[in-house]
């Protein structure tokens, strides 16, 4: 695999990444971040038929839309007859607990003791607390695409509504908007909040206290998914150009751009081992990159189930979870 030299990593932010200031007065035809007249969000490359046996254990099931891990619980969102399957990671041979959802989950975000669930078709976000398995519903309207806890509040990326809802523990919600075309994911690093905009294939910093969207940077040719790491960065997969891109969150600066051919799409982060796990949908593979240094270093590569659009990781054991959007099960790999 070709690696970028230090010089080329520096050149990319200066020559290939355009910054949009906090001012939103620019006309659409002078928008430095819009690269085509009618932008379309990047999608996962279509996977070929599986020719190599998937690594690890495959749990049977229908098409998976998202996966997450919280504690010793694996949560799998099924796209058909939308529901959750809850597995005990310490007893995977046992049948899962099934919990119905209002609609298909676009994203699951795991955190200690809870999993955030976004259901865009129903205008709902839910919070699953564990181990009591209690679901709490919040109606947001619109089409929420992701949700995270942020201090005492929750931040909800509202997709085509082009904004972020701030839901306090008590009191009225407020909205943060401006500049973005599609609020597809919201992420909190150690020192900042970032929103991923798939239509503009860009990331923007968010001033939650000030209630505004700040500067934005291009995130390759087809930003697909993102995750926060342990070093104050946001890691983004570029599904069109095949790359893993790292941004510092505050200030928003591109730090690395590393080539990852094969249809880079899903991403998860193992904080205990500093490993970013990236799925390659063109190859039915998942790759583990050590991201502690100046550039990612490949440590693991495993064959997966077909159409590995979603991936999660158990920080405690290091096990990697891969969900098949083609209905070929949920894969559990012990590196």
Order of H and E elements: HEEEEEEEEEEEEEEEEEEEEEEEEEEEEE
Strand order of the largest sheet: 1-18-17-16-15
Mean pLDDT: 89
Radius of gyration: 19 Å
CATH topology: Methylamine Dehydrogenase, Chain H
Q: Tell me the fraction of residues in β-strands, as a range.
A: over 45%
Apparent shape: globular
Tally of separate helices:
1
Number of strands: 29
Structural class: mainly beta
Q: Write out the CATH superfamily name.
A: YVTN repeat-like/Quinoprotein amine dehydrogenase
**Main sheet record:** 5 strands, antiparallel
Unreliable stretches, pLDDT < 50, 5 or more residues? 1-29
Distance between the termini: 21 Å
Which CATH first-tier class would you pick?
Mainly Beta
Number of domains: 1
From the 3D coordinates, which CATH architecture would you assign?
7 Propeller
Signal peptide: 1-26
Organism: Amycolatopsis heterodermiae
Protein name: Lipoprotein
Keywords: Signal
Secondary-structure topology with pairs:
Layout: H1 6-16, E1 19-20, E2 57-59, E3 64-70, E4 73-78, E5 83-88, E6 97-100, E7 107-111, E8 114-119, E9 124-129, E10 134-139, E11 146-150, E12 153-157, E13 163-167, E14 174-177, E15 185-188, E16 193-197, E17 202-207, E18 212-218, E19 223-228, E20 233-238, E21 243-249, E22 252-259, E23 264-270, E24 275-280, E25 285-290, E26 297-303, E27 310-313, E28 320-323, E29 330-333
Antiparallel strand pairs: 1-18, 2-29, 3-4, 4-5, 5-6, 7-8, 8-9, 9-10, 11-12, 12-13, 13-14, 15-16, 16-17, 17-18, 19-20, 20-21, 21-22, 23-24, 24-25, 25-26, 27-28, 28-29
Protein name: Lipoprotein
Keywords: Signal
InterPro entries: WD40/YVTN_repeat-like_dom_sf
